[in-house]
Amino acid sequence: MTDSIFDILAWRDEEIPRVRTLLGMRKFWSGPLYGQLREEYERMTDGKPTPETADEAWPIVDALPSLPRWAWLDRHIQDRLWDDVGKMVDDRIEALSRSLQPKNDDLGTLRIEADFTYPEYYETIDFHRQDGGIWREDRGAAVYAMGARVIHVGRNNDFQLHDAFADSLDAGEPQEILDLACGFGKTTFSLKKKYPNAHVEGIDLSAPCLRLGRRMATEMGLDIDWRQADMEHLPYDDNAFDLVTTTMTLHELPLDAIRQSLAEACRVLKPGGTLVALENPLVGEPLRDVLTQYHSQIIVEPFHYDFRRADMAEFAKDAGFTEAETHAWSPFGDKPGTATNPRSWVTPWSWIQAYKA
Amino acid sequence: MKDLANAKLLGDADLDRITSVVSNLLEEVIALSERVAKLEGNGDPNAAQDRINEIIERVLTPLA
Ligand SMILES: C[S@@+](CC[C@H](N)C(=O)[O-])C[C@H]1O[C@@H](n2cnc3c(N)ncnc32)[C@H](O)[C@@H]1O
After folding, report:
1. Per-10-residue mean pLDDT for chain A, 357 residues long?
2. Taking CB atoms and an 8 Å limit, are B20 and A28 in contact across chains?
3. Would you give the DSSP letter of residue A216?
4. Nearest chain A Cα distance for residue B25, angstroms
5. Complex ipTM
6. Which of A191, A204, A296 to mutate to test the pocket of ligand 1 (most atoms within 8 A of CB)?
7. In this structure, how many other beta carbons lie within 10 angstroms of the beta carbon of residue A350?
8. Which domains does chain A have, with CATH numbers?
9. Within a domain: residue B53?
10. How many domains is chain B partitioned into structurally?
């Protein structure tokens, strides 16, 4: 085996059936099992006033006979994912730590704090049911990186979703770009690919993720700076960046941390700068919205409920942005009607954009 | 003393675990069946996801 991080994390032939089993179970969960819930729901609401909001639908959903089985399979798939992928990473652990050692050809800078204070919610919650989280050791970051590929396989094997996000940005020609809560850099890579001449910097709480991101970026020839930092307390001067992004993260923060992070994003943006965030909203259809909220609960995203009921455009304005708006975003031109057809399960995206005058 | 000879031993939480055992077995069966398909020369990788989805759907049908 080479020391390339991409080779190390690639699926081996004998692992692929396991990955496909997870995907097959996920398909069963979002197909026949969800279909069964939908039928039960339609029977229970037949001839009665149709619930218009998730809160109205909630007691009905709680009484659906198939709900416990749907929830069980959701939880099982998530646990199995980390179990399976954890074993795969254990098989590669030596190659992994060799690969993540600092090297002469490393591109960009990597700043890890010797004595870093993590927010309490981050230290105490194992988000996504991943034991030990993604920040204590390199193994956790690698498990997260391999696991993320299982979830999105087919569409996101090569960061297509994040590339589509960067391609959709309409922020002029930013020179200074900051990606908040960059993880191991999926969006950060896409930003550097879209704006090769800009200075791109990614921050995250997780040092192992940053190490992994830097290695991957180096192998892709992407010169990016990585820094361990809390988005609630950014270690940058005022008016330093033209574009600040954050993808798939706000829903993982408590509301007061979101407010504080938005205020920080606004502070470090130059006048005329833009903040863009990518998120998973509710679809506005009661059954799927209740199930989406239960799904977030099951996979341990404890702040999702409040987040999905908060108006991020308002939050952004409260945080100092002059204008802010949110709209639906369908990167792959989802099949017409998928979002509006309640019989199909969807993962919707929303685009949050705010400007600083 | 409990009557362990006759009491109903497994409760709801245990059922969750047993369902996990069954589901894990399903994964092992799939891993093996893919190995067999490969050895027999029937393991078209492009059709693997469909083959696996079919097994899963057959086995998990009682859940839906
Ligand atoms: C779901 S991941 C998203 C990663 C990446 N943005 C992406 O789109 O793939 C959430 C990330 O937020 C980071 N995070 C959570 N709270 C944070 C905070 N207060 N400051 C910086 N990063 C944070 C986590 O370490 C994790 O890497």
Report:
1. 85 91 94 95 93 95 96 95 95 94 95 95 94 92 88 58 94 96 97 98 98 96 98 98 97 97 98 96 89 94 93 97 94 66 85 97
2. no
3. H
4. 11
5. 0.90
6. A204
7. 16
8. 5-355 (3.40.50.150)
9. yes
10. 1
